[in-house]
Amino acid sequence: MCGITGYIGKNNGVEKVLEGLSKLEYRGYDSAGLAAIDNGKLNIVKTKGRLKELEKLVLEGKVEGNVVIGHTRWATHGVPSGANSHPHTSMDGKIAVVHNGIIENFRKIKDSLLEKGYVFKSETDSEVIGHLISYYYDENKDPLLAIKKAFDSLEGSYACLIIFLDHADKIFAVKKDSPLVIGVGGEEVYLASDPAAFIKYTKNIIYLENNEIATLGSDEIKIFNMDLEKVDCKVEKSNLNEDSASKEGFETFTLKEIYEQPKVCMDTLNSKLENGDIVYEDFPFTKEELSKINKIYTIGCGTAFYAGINFSYLAKKMLGIESFEILSSEFRYDLPNLDENSLIVAVSQSGETADTLAALKEARKMGAKIVAITNVLASAITRLSDYSIYTLAGPEIGVCSTKAYTSQLMAIYEFILYLAKATGKIDESKFKEYIEELKSIPEKQKKILDDVGIYEEIANVIKEKSSAFYIGRLIDYKTAMEGALKLKEISYIHTEAFPAGELKHGSIALIEEKTPVIAVLTQEEVFEKTLSNLEEVKARGAVTIGIYSEIFRGKDKTDFSIFVPETYKVFYPILTAISVQLIAYNTAKALNRDVDKPRNLAKSVTVE
């Protein structure tokens, strides 16, 4: 996820674009850049690093312009660097583009352009956009037609701002599946990924729809569909204020990030899918080497660890390989016997987690293969790993992990399927079935988010107690652990998770009148046994809450019942995770907690 801004008007817009980028830096902060047209020149300034580095360069160069586009980057294709920073230009330097999203077929487009003699300066998917627009623009010198033809050829998600030196009185914008809004302010027009970038100057907003192209001048706005037919543009009055706008209308960043999960899970899935296959570019291990792996160790901390234990569970079930999950903080003090046939899967949102870094250093000394699953390109953990799989969650501002967790699960599912196919554990037919089911997951997540009425009622019960418990069996127990962590870290209610069958071996002594017990029930082979465990706690006065697969509707026996759509049994955690997040979120809000910044916690733990 990146942030883009634009300005066109009668005044110097560079300062306003920089100000807008500062409001969007939460969307990406590994590099930043801008392009400005001034006195017949197109000036590009961009750099690796935080926005303050760009501000220094702009000040030193005295860059000005009344047509300006800007970008703050969250790297997806290509490491953070000056070359990979936006804006990207056409080969003749007369067209500049900033892009938020992913161009899924960029390799095919790039190869075609290379054959035509185009020269690329970056590793990004975004650079193909400027070259492709230039290619069509050279045919007829019509910028709108060139943009239409280019985006007809591009697949993926995008919000783009484009400026042409030959048309220095316009900014062109195009949108599909990535946010882009227009701010109308008298003789000034603003564009951004988020109204936070310009809400200080205008609350008159046009929300660009999917597959629309806009041409914007200081005194005229025109919007077209992809057939270049003019469409009406509706100006709405925003009720956002400067403080809340960056939350896109949500009460908190955490809630916004909960609702972003269908999008980021789809982005993570699509980033490795090519023609129905999972492609890891430059993957270092051959099929023969993968077939020799005899032990897998999954490591991580906190939520990343709970995501990782799903990988360990699936490795046993789908790969038939002996698999273990070990907390990073324990790993290096109780080292397993590792060798070149051992695989370490390290999960970390930030890629900087100190305990995980320390564990990987020990694993590296012993010759183990290392694959990282992380949300941050070129982070420390990726540099210690043989290969890194990136989730596309974008910046996560809320301290408790929500979208980072489910995007990690999506990356884990893809990696398991890749290994299973590469080692012959599943055939092509079964592989395709799994892929098709993964493609359906985001829509199923949306269904959960469309029906959230029950969670407030459940929260009002939980908030009255000082302790709560999560239970589950098999893979549901993995979600129970994550659910307990979510509830305790943002509501401050003591919460523990137990395998459901273990309750009677000691923990049931803690059940008292109205103790909330939340059970995850999606696995058919243990459904009746988990129901029996719920009856045991209910008989001792507990309030029972069930998170069920839709296949069990009508068989639920809890005081409160939540249902998630049916999916393959191994994929339920990516759905039930949203329900446990909503339970925790609503409970914390009912207790007036600071959900985004819970006490004593930091987003990334970089000390041991």
Outline:
This protein is an alpha/beta fold and 608 residues long.
Structural notes for this entry:
- With 608 residues, the protein is of the alpha/beta class.
- The chain folds into three domains: 245 residues, Glutamine Phosphoribosylpyrophosphate, subunit 1, domain 1 (4-Layer Sandwich), CATH 3.60.20; 192 residues, Rossmann fold; 138 residues, Glucose-6-phosphate isomerase like protein, domain 1 (Rossmann fold, 3-Layer(aba) Sandwich), CATH 3.40.50.
- Helices cover 36% and strands 25% of the residues.
- It is built from 18 helices and 27 strands.
- The chain has an eight-stranded antiparallel β-sheet with strand order 3-2-4-1-10-9-11-15, covered by helices on one side. The chain has a seven-stranded antiparallel β-sheet with strand order 5-6-7-8-12-13-14. The chain has a five-stranded parallel β-sheet with strand order 19-18-20-21-22, with helices on both faces.
- Strand 18, helix 9 and strand 19 form a beta-alpha-beta unit.
- Helix 9 runs antiparallel to helix 16 and helix 15 crosses helix 18.
- The two termini are 29 Å apart.
- The model has no long low-confidence stretch (mean pLDDT 93).
